[in-house]
Amino acid sequence: MQDIRPDTSHVVIDAHGLQCLIDALSQDGRRVVGPTVRDEAIVYDDIAGLGSLPRGWTDRQEAGRYALERREDEACFGYVVGPHSWKKFLFPPVETLWKARREDDGTMAVSRPERPADRFAFIGVRACEIEAIAIQDRVFEQGPYTDTAYAARRSDAFIVAVNCGQAGGTCFCVSMETGPRATHGFDLALTEMIEGAEHRFLVEIGSEEGRSVMAQVPHVRADEARIGAASAIVERTAAQMGRHLDTDGLKELLQGNLEHPRWDDVADRCLTCANCTMVCPTCFCSTVEDHSDLANREAERVRKWDSCFTMDFSYIHGGSVRASTASRYRQWMTHKLANWIDQFGTSGCVGCGRCITWCPVGIDLTQEAAAIRATPGEGRS
Amino acid sequence: MPSDVFAADPFLPDLYRVGKVRRELADAVTLELEPQSGPRPDFRPGQFNMLYAFGVGEVAISMSASARLGTGFVHTVRNAGAVSGALARLEPGATLGVRGPFGTGWPVVKAEGRDVLIVAGGLGLAPLRPAIQDVLAHRERYGRVTILVGCRSPHDILYQHDLEEWRQRLDVTVEVTVDHAGTDWHGDVGFVTTLIPRSPFDPDKTVAMVCGPEVMMRFAASALLKAGVPASEIHLSMERNMKCAIGLCGHCQFGPTFVCKDGPVFPLDRISGLLAVQEI
User: Fold this and answer.
1) Which of B172, B171, B174 is nearest to B163 (CA)?
2) pTM over 0.90
3) Where along the chain is [2Fe-2S] cluster bound (chain B) (predicted)?
């Protein structure tokens, strides 16, 4: 892990400074989104300031379990990750791709929607989430075709990262080498530090835009002791991981075990509810729906998140290619942990643990991978 | 971000007008499409377009005539669902949306100097027809050319006029077999794979192009391997559910590949492991 070096790229702010930062971003015309408590979970939504943040709350997570609890302090970022990810802003769950109009003579015209107006500022992006955004960048921007609406939203987004001060029960970012420290891909990165009555944030400046925003926020220079203490917080978090995934040769292991009996075993538990794909910050599959008005003159094409766990996903005339639950779970897990590497040069998993926490029956992909590793090469019985 | 960020939005279709419509089978028509503005992009045999029927949706359909034979696109569409049904009902003059061309093509150029073996099942002849047309346009560049076609019944034989024309050439072997037929059928009965062992090709210098239902392609691949054609010289056109055709929707994954951008035409040696797995 890198050391945080004492230089002009580190400053210290207090809670008032954090409010000033949010105000500065908002006054810059940005839509500021961040964590907030709703429906007994910490979700990402529009925030106005400190009052919107989950101050004094933490989350307890295990396979199939998520609960909020009060903290003993007033930490703003004293939780891990919730059911939302930043994907819902950069890659909206429902998005109109274009509209079409048909005239009396049968001719047709196609028009695209206005460019999305939102210039986002994301507050509280975890290291694993920065990596998830980078993975979706590869999918949507770096293939033969670019999703231009995604690219526009992405290039405008201002990212305020938060280094994790604690790990959750389903976290395994250390295994995936994606956290818990944000090392790149942010404009500003905060480490929250609470000692007694003192509530401070060490701010690492990661971009020129970050630097110019910080010029509007009251701050003091960070000394070496402060930077060292922040480093220690993140190192302590790294030692607390609730889960571990052995990634050594994982791609070959899964691609070589497509007929392993474990797929039938997990199929006995999996409900094919698609929760894992909805909460995953990298899952990018989508479908399209076409609508028209009653006169059949105006039509639109709408893209929506989809999941490889549905029957429709693989439907071709005559039936679904992946009719069994075993084949659908296999598709998801082999794609996420193995095929993704062939497709995009990186694993599709960042170790955030959401798929484990939000699985209603507590299926844990780290355990499923370990089970296959324990008995590789077994054929289906 | 430059203001022309939307300049090349790959989700936006171009508009085409339906020209001639030709009924091929009880449930299939061939549409000739002309661009409403600008030239039609070039394409290779085996590539496909996404065709949009107003208000109904898009579907992936291969080009079924060579780019050299016209200024538009030719697509043979079977009424198999909501979108393809709407497309199959289009009349001359109607407007539709087209995105493409997408995907890999048949190895028509790579096959020069070699025997060419075409194996088609049912509507699988449609994506192969541009390859056949291009090979026959430069017939002297190829060795023996064999076209094997299998259909369910004599009523399901696509492009009978083309098959007749090709059959009359002395430099092409054309064989058609049907799964079942009445007493008025005097040709072969049986699966198309049964034609492979008796066809005239030198397995060491043959390029095979196979298109049809997946199960038919699996059996054809086995028969070709058994006949001695190397896996790298056997090419299949795969089909999967497809929403975007540009590698963004995830639907057409076939193991580590995306059928839309890594296929639809694959050499067998790249996918033989996947073909053997059920529900992949």
Assistant:
1) B174
2) yes
3) 244, 249, 252, 260
Q: Let me know whether B163 and B266 are in one domain.
A: yes
* Counted domains in chain B: 2
User: Confidence band (pLDDT; 50, 70, 90) for A107?
Assistant: confident
- Local confidence band at A6 (pLDDT 50, 70, 90 cut-offs): very low
Taking only the tens place, the pLDDT of each residue in B199-238 is 999 999 999 999 999 999 999 999 999 999 999 999 999 9
Q: For residues B132 and B75, state if they share a domain.
A: no
The predicted-structure confidence for A151-165, as pLDDT tens digits, reads as follows 999 999 999 999 999
Residue B108 counted as domain residue: no
Give the domain range for residue B88: 3-102
Mutate to test the interface with A, among B27, B61, B240, B251 (most CBs of A within 10 A): B251
B198 CB burial (10 A radius; 0-12, 13-18, 19+): exposed
Read off the tokens for A163: 């280094």
Per-residue pLDDT tens over the stretch B28-48: 999 999 999 999 999 999 999
Return the residue in A112, A259, A343, A380 with the most chain B beta carbons within 10 A, the one to mutate for interface testing. A343
A27 CB burial (10 A radius; 0-12, 13-18, 19+)? exposed
Q: Residue B259's domain is classified under what CATH number?
A: 3.40.50.80
Q: Give the Cα separation of B210 and B222 in Å (integer).
A: 12
pLDDT digits (tens, 9 = 90+) for A166-215: 999 999 999 999 999 999 999 999 999 999 999 999 999 999 999 999 99
Could you list the residues of B known to form a binding site for [2Fe-2S] cluster, using ranges. 244, 249, 252, 260
3-state helix, strand, coil in chain A (%, to 5): 35, 25, 45
| Rg of the Cα atoms in chain A | 22
- Enumerate chain B positions whose Cβ falls within 8 A of a Cβ in A: 1, 5-6, 8-13, 15, 54-58, 80-81, 93-97, 239-241, 243-244, 246-251, 253, 255-256, 258, 261, 277-280
pLDDT of A234 over the 60 cut: yes
- Inside any domain, residue B190: yes
Q: What distance in Å separates the CA atoms of residue B276 and residue B280, rounded to the nearest whole number?
A: 9
Q: How far apart are CA B64 and CA B49, in angstroms?
A: 11
Buried b (16+ CB within 10 A) or exposed e, B184-197: eeeebeebbbbbbe
Give the residue from B4, B48, B32 showing the smallest Cα distance to B240.
B48
